[in-house]
Amino acid sequence: MGRFKGWLRLPDDDPAQAVHVEIDLDDERITIRSEAGVEIGSWSLDEVGVHAEDDGFRLRVEGEHIVLVTEDDGRFALALGMAAGSPRLRRLMGAALRSGT
């Protein structure tokens, strides 16, 4: 489904404090690693709740909430199978569909 670069933080953290990460998505799992390749977490997509917000994607995993922002939010949302989002996210998803990525 894809590999993405982005930033990870807790919901109450300052966005400037976000950690740079790499996100791997396949049909069954999401894996998040630090830029140095250290695995932060790997979860079955069935175990992850995802909700798009203005400041990024809110992921609920293991009872915790994290905020994930990617360099390609439109393609990331499509890879997750999201069908709705903010007007900005819908524009990004449309652009990703038109570009065929």
Structure explained in plain terms:
This protein is α+β, with helices and mostly antiparallel strands. The chain has one domain (2-72): Roll (PH-domain like), CATH 2.30.29.30. It contains 2 helices and 7 strands; from the N terminus they run βββββββαα. The chain has helices spanning 73-80, 87-99, and strands spanning 2-9, 19-25, 29-34, 39-44, 49-53, 56-61, 64-70. Strand 2 and strand 3 (29-34) form a beta hairpin. Helix 1 packs across helix 2 (87-99). The relative contact order is 0.19.
What integer is the average pLDDT?
Answer: 92
User: Using only CA atoms, what is the Rg?
Assistant: 13 Å
- The succession of helices and strands, N to C, reads EEEEEEEHH
Full CATH superfamily name: Pleckstrin-homology domain (PH domain)/Phosphotyrosine-binding domain (PTB)
Q: What share of the residues lie within helices?
A: 10-25%
Strand content: 35-45%
What distance separates the N and C termini? 11 Å
CATH class, anyone? Answer: Mainly Beta
CATH A-level architecture: Roll
CATH fold field value: PH-domain like
Report on the biggest sheet: 7 strands, antiparallel
Structural class: alpha+beta
Low-pLDDT runs: none
Number of structural domains: 1
User: Care to count the β-strands?
Assistant: 7
Spatial sequence of strands, sheet with the most strands: 4-3-2-1-7-6-5
From the spread of the alpha carbons, the general shape counts as globular
Number of alpha- plus pi-helical segments: 2
Features:
single chain; 101 residues; alpha+beta; PH-domain like; 7-stranded antiparallel beta sheet; 21% helix; 45% strand; globular
